[in-house]
C-alpha cells in the first residue's frame, strides 16, 4: 500500500539526522525533516517538474544527508 512513499520516508529519516550506521537520531528530528520533505513536494509540482525529477531531488537529499553524516562522524570521532 505504501510502496510509493519509500523514498520520501528514507529522505525524511536521513535528513532528520538518523545515522546510517545506527545509534543516533531522534523522533523530533525525523518529524521536522518529514515536514520539510512534505513542503518540498508541492513546490516541485508547482514548478512543473514530473515525478521523475521529484525522485531525483529526494535521492539527492539522501546522498547529501548521508555524506554530511559520514563527514561529521569522521571529524568528531
Keywords:
about 80 residues, about 0% strand, mainly alpha, single chain, elongated
CA-CA gap between termini: 40 Å
Total strand segments:
0
Number of helices: 3
Arithmetic mean of pLDDT: 85
Q: Beta-strand level of the residues, as a percent range?
A: under 5%
Structural class of the secondary structure composition? mainly alpha
What pattern of helices and strands is seen along the backbone? HHH
Poorly predicted segments: none
Largest sheet at a glance? none
The Cα radius of gyration reads 13 Å
What does it look like?
With 77 residues, this protein is mostly helical. The chain is 74% helix and 0% strand. It has three helices and no strands. The protein has helices at 6-15, 27-47, 51-76. Helix 1 (6-15) runs parallel beside helix 3 and helix 2 (27-47) packs antiparallel against helix 3. The longest helix has 26 residues, at 51-76. The chain is elongated and about 45 Å long. The model has no long low-confidence stretch (mean pLDDT 85).
Short description:
By secondary structure, the chain is mainly α. It has helices spanning 6-15, 27-47, 51-76.
List the helices and strands and how they pair.
Elements: H1 6-15, H2 27-47, H3 51-76
Helix pairs in contact: 1-2, 1-3, 2-3
